[in-house]
Amino acid sequence: MDTVQEYLKSGCPAIWVLTSGDPYRAEKIIPCQGWQFLAWDCTTGIRQPNSLTVVDQIYDPVDAIRYLDNLQDTVLMVHNLHLFMDSSPEIIQAIQNGINRWKSIGACMIVLSAVLKLRPEVEKLFQIIDLDPPDTDALYNLQCDLGKTHNIRPNKKAARIASGMTEVEAEQAYSLSLVKSGYFSSKVVSDLKSQIIRKSGILELYEPADIKDVGGLDNLKDYIQKRLEAIQSNDLNRPKSMLLLGIEDGVLIDVSKMAHEAGIKHPVAVTYTLWYEYIKPDPDAKSLGQSIEGWLWDVLWMFRVKAFVSVDSQFQFRVYFIMGKEVKLVELKAVCGPGDNLEPVITIMLPEED
Questions:
Q1: What does the domain layout of the chain look like in residue ranges?
Q2: Which of 5, 180, 20 is nearest to 114 (CA)?
Q3: pTM for the full model?
Q4: Rounded CA separation 247/337 (Å)
Q5: pLDDT digits (tens, 9 = 90+) for 155-213
Q6: Fewer CB atoms < 10 Å away: N or C end of the chain?
Q7: Residues with Cβ < 8 Å from 191, sequence gap 6 or more?
Q8: Which CATH superfamily, name and number, covers 2-130?
Q9: Average pLDDT of span 241-251
């Protein structure tokens, strides 16, 4: 990584690399000429990068940080240090004590982590770098390496589809496509990428459908049909796709699809405040396995339980959320009122919202 090398040449003693869940790729591409590179993790100790060759059996993170104090022109890549920082003031002190020493001997500590979680005592000591995902050429070369032993030809289209995936994710997709199809299948890669996107909570993907099967949207369907006719009659290149961007309705977010799965037959929306303050988990909650889908399901299920015993059009119910490292019991309010076409619509919000 050119950026890391530039920081090392400038004498930077502490760097935080956000790995996007691909730490061993970072460990592979960061080393450069001019420095000795070592790696540390809490189960292996000090070792050679991209290797299980142990240099020193040091498992304590404080001792690992201090290990750098006497190594000139050395870079120590430390895995997941953020997991220890909240519970160990000794780590904070070791970093503060080591910074000037590392500068004077040309040493540097590089933290490899999927999340940025710095204590205020040391946040200004670190330079932050994002590890870019592998580009299309790198993903294509990965296919070449995997297919070489079995004489399987690489597929440039599958490499393009894998764009945005980590090296680990792409390798899993390629290996799965070899098992299922016997070649690097674009469809298998696309299906696995859809699962990855769904886990992120950013988008929800659906299987392709004929436009005739889409309900409503008559004006949009008429426009698409006329646009297609114009492209065909004028011998123009047909666009690959069209983006239909739906803006959230004011302060409401439609969650009717999952509500239907939970046995709620009427449309359901949650307020923007409830979504972003509680339903969308923070990094700490994500690290504990929490997800948008899980918490939204909890909200809808607890609503359903209370709705069974309530005869009012408005009532309150409670749901547990994990906030940071604490469990919080949150009071929510549900209101059933008329929608745009006078159909019953349920809105779930915080008690102070209207």
A1: 2-130, 136-200, 208-238, 252-349
A2: 20
A3: 0.60
A4: 22
A5: 999 999 998 888 989 999 999 999 999 999 999 998 888 888 777 666 666 666 777 77
A6: C
A7: none
A8: P-loop containing nucleotide triphosphate hydrolases (3.40.50.300)
A9: 59
